[in-house]
Amino acid sequence: MKYDSLNYYYPSRRNVVYGTRGMVATTQPLAAQAGLEMIKKGGNAIDAAIAAAACLTVVEPVSNGIGGDLFAIVWAKGEIFGLNSSGPAPMDISVQKLKEKGIRNIPKCGWIPVTVPGIPAGWAELWRRFGRLKFPELLSPAIHFAREGYAVSPTISMLWKKEYETYKHELKGEEFRFWFETFAPEGRAPEPGEIWKSEAHAQTLEEIGDTQSESFYQGRLADVIDSFSKTYGGFLRKKDLAAFKPEWVKPVSVNYRGYDVWEIPPNGHGIVALMALNLAKGFSFTDRDSSETCHRQIESMKLAYADGLEYISDPKYMTVDVKDLLSESYAEERRKLIGDTAIMPIHGRPSSGGTVYLAAADGEGNMVSLIQSNYNQFGSGLVVPGTGIALHNRGANFNMDETHSNCIAGGKKPYHTIIPGFLSKDGNPIGPFGVMGGFMQPQGHFQVIMNTIDFHLNPQQALDAPRWRWVEGKRIEFEPGFPSSVIDELKRRGHEIRVQEGLGGFGKGQIIWRTEKGSLCGGTEPRADGAIAVW
């Protein structure tokens, strides 16, 4: 990977990091250290990723938990592998049953949006195929922090406080009291530097480790989840948990200027980033900070998202083929819609959705791109009593339109927003990358890949650079940092621009590239409490 020092657009908030024998990049320093500890013990990048992921359920509970979903891309033994460990809706749920309950739209909180959690099964599946250390050992750092406590980091404290204030007003049912008992036992969110612990979370992680996650799906933990759901009118049952198995899938890719960009296929929306790159590669970009560059990037993303929102769902229900959406001929057809002014995005007709991201690499050539999530910060607002398990609300991405491929149905997986990315060239790995943040994720992938390939920014610069975000229609939000002349010209082209101050919604990412010299080069997110542990 070539980095051009002349294209150093923005002062880096951190220095790029180099290493040789191991690197783990996460949004929380303790999780990064936990992952690197496994490599130093003789484990590999997969062991490191599992350890860091388990640790993040403890030290960053505002974004993920044991009760969420997981996706991963693994490069090992000269091959690329994809894991989809996202769960389906309960078998007994249906549009008709929801309507009988008076529900017309899928809520964000409570039992209705809770699908089968995939994280524990995903950890175990990655370990069985690639892991080297014993499974309980990988969870030991997370267990330690849950039992002994850790000092809450600043960004996590801020998000925790924000969610507590929301939940305090919105979560009124008896079933939600367990969230407050677990995450706000003092009647408030923890302050930065305050020690937080959860013995229940520690015991659950021990049980998951000792049973290689079986207890969560077929044992005692499954019984507790089943009982909680029955007590409060949920649809999730032990039979749903017992039937779940993670899926090994072949990652999909497009070639962008000689590099292969890889994503997990649907039900995730990683193909949105690939469709946007397919459109963008028909243009030539030389200056990142120009209205022409931003305009064409935005229009490419809008058209890609229009197709994604129309067609992406559980692959068994999709009405179009992924290869058609990613075809060169379809990209050429869609690219003709991009002119000099902003358009309203509409989907085409080709022939027949709170998250943590981490990257890990070792000195042997193994690399992992892993993402896991509870979706809307803490998820559904439900915590299984006595376990520390915060249940996600991934089913909130379903709709109730029975003519749409993403309509809720028993045993069906929803449109999923969490996506790990990977970059390679000529059959050789460059490395893992990702940007978390709901519907920002494909937009973040698109921008950091262009920052890397078109504008020759190193991993830290690629993450530091200000981002834009398409919201809907012609509405675009920009982070501070873009020249005012660019914003003014985009407005003249018909874009509805808002420059947003603060951290709001532009995603948080990590990158690890393997250089031509064989060393590891990493960048971590300046918008979070990001850290890289390196050896």
Span between termini = 21 Å
User: What can be said about the biggest beta sheet?
Assistant: 7 strands, antiparallel
Strand segment tally: 21
**Fraction of residues in β-strands:** 15-25%
Total helical elements = 18
Mean pLDDT over the full residue set: 93
User: What class, by secondary structure content?
Assistant: alpha+beta
Q: Uncertain spans, ≥5 residues at pLDDT below 50?
A: 5-11
Order of strands, main sheet, comes to 1-20-19-15-14-9-8
Shape: globular
Radius of gyration: 22 Å
Instruction: Please bin the fraction of helical residues.
Output: 25-40%
Report on the architecture of this protein.
With 535 residues, this protein is α+β, with helices and mostly antiparallel strands. Helix content is 36%, strand content 19%. The chain contains 18 helices and 21 strands. Helix 12 packs across helix 13 and helix 12 packs across helix 16. It starts with 16 loop residues before the first strand and ends with a strand. About 1% of the residues have low confidence.
Quick synopsis:
The chain has 535 residues and is α+β, with helices and mostly antiparallel strands. The chain has 18 helices and 21 strands.
